[in-house]
Amino acid sequence: MWILIVLILLIAGVKLFDKMLPYLLVAIVLVYGFIFVEKWWLVLLISLIAGIGIWYLNEKKNRNE
Asked: Does this model's pTM top 0.85?
C-alpha cells in the first residue's frame, strides 16, 4: 500500500515539474482516500475520472496552440 502511495507521489512530482499542478492534487486525493476513507474504490474512481479529464483538457489545449 505504501509503495503505491510513493509511486503516485513520484508521478505527481514529475508532472509538477512539467507545470501540471492538478496531477499533484489528484495524488493527494488518492492518498487521503486510501488512508482515511473506507470506500477507497470510490476515491480511486473519482481520481481516475479527474486524471482523464485533466489529460483531455491538456491535449485539447496543446492542439489549439
From this structure: no
